Amino acid sequence: MKKVTTDFLIIGSGVAGLFCAYKLSAFGEVTIITKKFDYESNTNYAQGGIASVFAKTDNAEKHIQDTMEAGAGLCDPESTRIMVHEGPARVRELLDIGVPFNTDGEGNFELGLEGGHRENRIVHAYDRTGREVERALLTCIKSISNIKILEHHNCVELITPHHLKTNSVMENRCFGAYVLNTRKGEVIPFVAKKTILATGGAGQVYLHTTNPDIATGDGVASAYRAGARIKNMEFYQFHPTSLFHEKGESFLISEAVRGKGGILRRLNGEAFMKEYHPMEDLAPRDIVARAIDNEMKKSGSSHVLLDTTHLVKPEIIRYFPSIYEKCKSLGIDITEEPIPVVPAAHYMCGGVETDVYGRTNIRDLYCVGEVASTGVHGGNRLASNSLLEGVVFAHRISENIYNEKLNGHLHLPSEATYIPEWDKEGLKNTEEWVLISHNLHEVKSIMSDYVGIVRSNLRLERAKRRIHLIREEVRDYYNRTIISNQLLELRNLVQIADLIVQSALLRKESRGLHYSTDYPEDRNPSRKDTILWNEEL
Ligand code: FAD
Ligand code: SIN
Questions:
Q1: For ligand 1, atom 14, which residue shows the shortest CA distance?
Q2: Which residues have CB under 6 Å of ligand 1?
Q3: DSSP secondary structure string, 102-122?
């Protein structure tokens, strides 16, 4: 049987997967699989930067406090403390790897400001931090001989005991993944001592998103199917300021623009954030996105304005070269006229539940980055804490695995010999596919109409019924059909939509990013995480 065996299988090549690969390569052979081209990831589009304590006026307690406040009472204190305290060392490692962060003449980081932060702490490379992080990490790992990176390889399913051709009862554990080589159209098992999911978020479950096409929630969906605990999926973060343009191009206008003094205005020019929060334009993201949503609903307008025209022109062009150029290419000179903006789906605050070493409830399966729920984001992520979380917990996964190796616990379980070939046969029915592919648009529309920034029980129940119908159709089609990237992504997005709706229905309060008109005030605070698992297993 054709199969690949490796020490560590990493699924995803964004910041979390690549940093983890870099660390794990010190004590084993690493295979990274990635769905499309190696750079294609949310990471590649990150603008603002990485939040970390470097300013003389700042300290870890302040960063922890800002994170917890943004998180609306749901951040896990231990993981938050770990992220903040270990962050600066990881940021310095990125610098050593070759990320060209902006510094002043004396080598100190130039630190930006973003919403919810009371101190300047955003380490950045102009407004293209993610692209520089991705480029530096890819260059670094390509120079390491025991890391292999396979593009156009899509994780279909995690391999767990129910796949094995053996009757012996065993605990749930992960032996690797069935992987579709999308260029050859074949599915082969990748068997590993440890499997690390680093598949990122799921912004594509909504019509308007800042995320690229790869963000289809594959990691959460496959971990759920395999029996992992899925946490707090109701908290989907909408970024307040995505460019609104008739060409419909999705492009983020970084929160750092407001950090530099950008002001949100109604179409008539009135600034409105002072009516919503004492931190005004730099309030936490959930509050700003909801305020914009409210303003648009009140006025019937399709967008609001982000005004930078009062700021120093050369400074704006120097600090935000990509935003300046992008807007200019669409006919908007941001130094002369305000930018039309709308909120867009941006970040999955929930995910696969992990401990502070990235371990899930499935033995040998780790999760890191946006796919994971380490507890640091609670009900609403603080700006620029995501890249930070990715590198901090990637490092901690490598520490944990290194300790297992030292203790003699790092080996392939004997049951791995029973892993069967992928036995799925089917027919490609292109005619039917046309019907099924309409489901994708329908899922996105349902999620945007009923499960967006403002929710209600009525809307959620309606979404649930419709998503369940689509889920059954897709499941039936999947069982009869040769798999493709499109079908896998559709199947996963439907699963993600269902998990978000189920979680939202379970939370009987408004908190952070989950705002329900049925519970407009925080009257009956539960402060509990929402946990879901696959009851069909
Ligand atoms: P990603 O970077 O998304 O990487 C996921 C990888 O998994 C990709 O390589 C993908 O192809 C692969 N993959 C997915 N499914 C499969 C599959 N089935 N099989 C194989 N491979 C698969 N955060 C900040 O902290 N600061 C910022 O300034 C910031 N700005 C942002 C701006 C934008 C426009 C966006 C979209 C996000 C921003 N974020 C920011 C959030 C942050 O970029 C992401 O949360 C973070 O980069 C996620 O990293 P990751 O490695 O977990 O996932
Ligand atoms: C931004 O630059 O506004 C994005 C920051 C983030 O998502 O953390």
A1: 199
A2: 11-17, 33-36, 40-43, 45-50, 129-130, 154-155, 198-201, 210-211, 214, 218, 252, 347, 369-371, 384-387, 390
A3: -B-TTSPBPEE--TT-SS--E
